[in-house]
Structure formats: C-alpha cells, structure tokens
Design a protein that fits this description.
Blueprint (H helix, E strand, L loop, with lengths): L14 H6 L4 H31 L26 E8 L1 H4 L9 H6 L14 H4 L3 E5 L7 H9 L11 E8 L2 H5 L17 H24 L5 E6 L22 H18 L3 E4 L1 H5 L32 H17 L1 H4 L2
Parallel strand pairs: 1-2, 1-3, 3-4, 4-5
Length: 338
C-alpha cells in the first residue's frame, strides 16, 4: 500500500499527543497523585487528632468536683468540746500545688473565701466551734517517715484529756511510686518491684500502720477518730505507666491493690479507724479520663483531677478529697459529740 496522500489529514493520534494534551494520561496521573497525597495528609492528621484526643487530652474542667455533700448534718452544732483536726501524711495532706486555703485539710476546717455556694457553711468549724488545726504532713514523705512524725513529741505533742482528735491521713502512696524507676526497688521506693519482691515490704506496711494508729491514739487520751484514706490510681485501673511517660511496671496494680487491702484491713482491726474511699472517688479522673469506652468513664465529669506531677491532685482534686473526707466525718458525728 502506498503512503497516504499529504492532502488527507492523519486522524490517528500520535503517541506524543497522549503525553502532552490537557487530558493526557500524565495530567490525570499527576492530578490523582496530588489528590491522594493530600488525602493521605488529611487522614494522618485526623488519626493523630483522634489518638491525641483520647490518649493525651486531659481536660481539667472548672467548678466543684467530687461527691455531693448533704447539708443536713451541718444544720446544727455537733459538740462544744475542744477538738483538734490533725493532718498526717504526705503531699496530698500537705496540700502540694495549691494555695493554703484550698488544700483539703484547710477546707475541712473552714470554707475558703471563694467557696462554691452549695458548700458554704459546710465545714467542721460550723459544727465544732472549739476546733483547731495542726497539720504535720510533709511533701515527699513515706509511711516510714510518718511513724517518726507521729512519735516525735516536738512535732505532735500529747494532747490534754479534754481534747478530742479528728485525724485525717494519707500514707503509703509514695512508698509505691518513688523513685519512678530511677533507682532499684526498695522499701519506701518500690517502683518497678515484682509482687514477690514487694511482699515483705507490704507486710511491714501492715505492722507500721498498726504502730501509727497506736501512736496517734496514745497521744489523744481524750479519744480520737482516725480517717485513713486509701491510695488513688492515676491510671484509672489500667496500670499502663508508659501512657504517663513512665517506665513500665508490670506488677504495679497488684502491689497497689495489696497496699489498699492493708489500709482497709487496718480500719477493720481498729474501732477508731475509718477507711476513706479516695481510690474509688478518683477512678475515671486519671490519665484515661477522656476514654468513653472504659468502665471507669465518668460521663457527668470526664475531667482530670491530678497535678502535672501525676502524684498529687489539682485544685478540683483537692475539692473532691475534701468532700469524701467530710462525708466520712459527718457519718461519725455522733461519735464526735459523745
């Protein structure tokens, strides 16, 4: 066949036309590649936002926090007797991280100037007009220190027989978390220990608690009630320390549970010791407070109650502690008024 005459146009597209036109395959490829790139970026950002939202976003919220407190017990005076409100323990009772009027011991005694309307007049000073306060707690201290603090007459002298004691105490928490894995586990700083390794220290804690209760009671010849808080859990029952950027500790929940069992057993053994359920009140307000699928999720207040150091409460956490202690004390008001 001869070549097509030059005056007849060639209608077949050349290979170069498919590679250079407005709708060439290269143009479509480039367009979709750019679209896929930006779609990928958007998906990555969305995934990161979701992970951040439910893993690292810990809203603190504002306003009151913790269980409600009934106004009924605070309608009249419980007793005219002399009462000493005594704080013993670690930084939770010392009030680390907040102004003095807002730590839980001070708020038990009297309402701060900026008290929430529903809590005004609901404090021990309103029902025990002859109450005073002494707080011998020390930030960073462990239960080993607390025994010595109680037995130190210069720090905590023997009270006169006409003084009744209301003692609020947090102890044992620092025994567990110090020194965050920076040192090998030991008694009083057992972070990273196995349950087997910690068992002798748990047994010693049981004996130490009995010694503390006896020491406190001996210094109140006029009688006392000891309100002993159990230990809260910043991981909301998960035990995943790495989520808080700490070294892994496989047996942390077992050891925490063992310590809390010892604290509750102490209240069972001693008639003047009352367990205060700080642990249960704080569940759902730790590092997983935003995770709605967990059993500990608190839909009415899914906020974080801990300080930046993870071991102490923030100002709303202190309000919650004040409320749980105040409820426990109000339940024992007849024993205070005897």
């Amino acid at each position: 066949m001869t070549d097509q005459p030059s005056h007849i146009p060639n209608l077949r597209p050349s290979s170069s036309s498919w590679q250079s036109g407005l709708f060439s395959w290269r143009w479509w490829f480039t367009l979709w590649r750019r679209r896929l790139f930006w779609v990928g970026i958007i998906l990555i950002l969305l995934a990161y936002s979701v992970v951040f939202r439910f893993t690292y976003y810990r809203p603190m919220g504002s306003g009151p926090a913790g269980p409600p407190v009934s106004r009924e017990p605070f309608q009249g005076v419980w007793s005219e007797r002399n009462v000493l409100l005594l704080g013993i323990g670690d930084s939770v009772t010392a009030g680390f991280g907040v102004d003095a009027p807002h730590n839980y011991v001070s708020r038990l005694l009297e309402n701060p100037p900026d008290e929430f309307p529903e809590m005004r007049g609901m404090c021990l000073q309103a029902v025990l007009p002859n109450i005073t306060m002494l707080n011998i707690s020390v930030s960073g201290s462990t239960s080993l220190h607390h025994v010595m603090h109680i037995e130190d007459d210069s720090r905590f002298p023997v009270q006169s027989e006409d003084v009744f004691g209301i003692v609020v105490m947090t102890t044992g928490g620092n025994d567990l978390i110090h020194n965050y894995g920076r040192t090998p586990p030991r008694e009083g700083a057992m972070y990273g220990a196995t349950l087997e390794q910690a068992q002798p220290w748990i047994d010693n804690f049981r004996d130490r608690l009995d010694r503390m209760v006896t020491g406190i009671s001996d210094k109140f010849p006029g009688g006392c009630l000891i309100f002993l808080a159990d230990i809260y859990d910043p991981t909301d029952g998960v035990g995943d320390a790495p989520s808080a950027f700490l070294p892994a500790w496989p047996d942390c929940m077992k050891i925490l549970d063992a310590y809390n069992t010892v604290l509750h057993e102490c209240a069972t053994r001693h008639d003047n010791v009352i367990a205060v359920p700080m642990h249960d009140v704080f569940l759902g307000h730790g590092i997983h407070c935003s995770q709605w699928w967990r059993a500990t999720y608190c839909s009415d207040d899914p906020t974080y109650w801990f300080h930046y150091n993870l071991e102490d409460p923030n100002i709303r956490g202190y309000d919650a502690i004040r409320r749980v202690f105040l409820n426990a004390i109000a339940e024992q008001r007849e024993r205070v008024s005897e």
